Amino acid sequence: MQPQIALKYASEELFNVTLYEWLAQAAPTPAMSELLMKFAAQERSHYDFWKQWLTKEATYSKFRLWWYKLLFRLLGTSFVLRILEQKEHRTIETYRQIAPTLPEPARSELYRLIQDEEKHEAEFLEAIRGEEPQLRYLGFIVLGLSDAIIEVTGVHAGFLGASHRPLTAGLAGLIVGFAASISMASAAYLQAKQNQGVSASRSAIYTGVSYIIAVILLALPYFSFGSIGWAFWISVLLAVGMVMSFVYYSSVVFERSFQGEVMESLIVLGTTAVLSYGFGEVLRRFFPEAL
Q1: Is the whole model's pTM more than 0.70, yes or no?
Q2: Residue 85's domain is classified under what CATH number?
């Protein structure tokens, strides 16, 4: 075994030990904490396996560890567990390729490590399923964000064609968005009443609050720029950023295709903007003095 290859995998296992120990301390339930401490102990034994070929101490990226901690704080346990489960799957595939190249008894020992990683993957999936009830409101958040982005971007695009006043467009987006957030929250409440697994009031709150947050963010450029063109394109960039962010989160948590879903969302967003802009141009030609 070449020392640089052993160093690479020893560093990865040492990172896993540190991360699992930290996650165990921050875990939301005692059962999750116990599971993560078990993983940390197993990863420590994996580190010891690779350490026998090292010529210097293994280290890991402190920034990477900080990043995972941030993800845990911002996006929750289930998201981080999904990321780790994907990483465990890649580790298994890599170890399978290396194992036949090792002499005995190292080969058998690495196959034992592979079995540990496979157990990790299965236990990760079980732990994630235990966390899934906490994600039952994610659909309402995504509903509020996606509808707000599409609808308010359409309003702004319409004013881009109809008027050259950014403040007017921004205020229109806020007014329409506020009214629509109440409507969407009411619809979410009625929809949740038919679902025994969720609270109708919490569903309405998640939908309405996520909607109005998106509305405010999309309107901010219209109060910051004197040109409606600049305001519109900055607002569109914010919309695209939000779309890609919540699609990526959903794709990780629910194991969906990121590329497919983000392309579909951006096509809907672009089509809405183009049609609304065209309609605004038509109104401006018919009512030039009003707009």
Answers
A1: no
A2: 1.20.1260.10
